[in-house]
Amino acid sequence: MADALTAAYALRLGDDALILSHRLSEWVGHGPELEEDIALANTSLDLLGQARLLLACAGEREGKGRDEDALAYGRDVLDFSNLLLVEQPNGDFAQTMVRQFLFDAYAVELWPRLSASRDEALAGVAGKAAKEAAYHVEQSAAWVVRMGDGTEESHARAQSGLNLLWPYAGEIFEADEVEAALAEKGIAVAPSALREHWQARVEPVLEEAGLAPPEGAGVRKGGRQGRHSEHLGHLLAEFQFMQRAYPGAEW
Amino acid sequence: MVNRAEKARRLAEAVLDPEIPVLTAGDLGIVREVEEDGGRLVVRLTPTYSGCPASEAIRRDVEAALTAGGFVDAVVETCLAPAWTTDWMSEDGKAKLAAYGIAPPARGPVSCPHCGGAAVEELSRFGSTPCKALWRCLGCREPFERFKCL
Fold it and tell me: Which among A35, A120, A128 has CB closest to B83?
């Protein structure tokens, strides 16, 4: 049965996972050490798995015959609804891990709650993703502390990453009619309800790391509505190249 | 006389994990349901990790095994809930993992699969596949992989 709201919600969560997965995959072969290269690839793979399930769910609910591949490779920038946070460039390893931590601290609060969704498909995906996010956040939090509380150089890089990315974190808790209507039905988790839990995870880690969020930073948003930073187009150019050049190609 | 569903279950559970070829789908506990649905045989598998590439290979191998076993109209479906846990791995499977050199998932302390030593340390929380972490034994000095508890 077509259900445009649930389709839009699944697409938002799926786009977050897909775009962040691609960003992390850009590190493959470039990690600071072999173990971290593998860790980033593993995390990327988990996110890709979540993205596939969520995009497949979105396609079914949309009811227009689009599968996960059609949604991943066949949409342009304006049709993507991911958070601006996840499309921001990797920068250095510190910036990447700060971005990952800000996202993981949200994901680890979202998925366990969404696993109680009245939508069985979303609840199923969420139940698996909850276990994966719990593992991811341990890794990213440990790196934020290690770098923030490390050398002058690593501290400066972590703080610089935080200054750059902090304004994008606010978008996580923004909701429009999609989340509002679905949260009322017990299908979605209201993003605003996650803010205090996210803060309770983020603040102690930043404190231990000796890092401070930039003061007076505003909120940069618009990704959910398709208003993206310039970075997403470049990402999609690489991600979608093969299917754009050879539509429907398989191997 | 073994009924059709039971025969199909045995075929599906005998399929080997391509990443860790000492384990069968049955050892992993990923064959969740096998049932006759209006004359059609349905086998439901659950993925270990959302993005595990082995899941797709196992699914194809299960389809092939069923076809070869005479279940030409069998359908293999994926079920996500309840989410897979390492608690579903059989004791036999855990013993096979240890013999293969991979520390099996256990809620208690980890021991070296080579010498059995208890003095071990984690090197990296991520290993060659999403389901494993890198460890080493401080006794025999051998590195080993550990199947993560999930």
Answer: A128
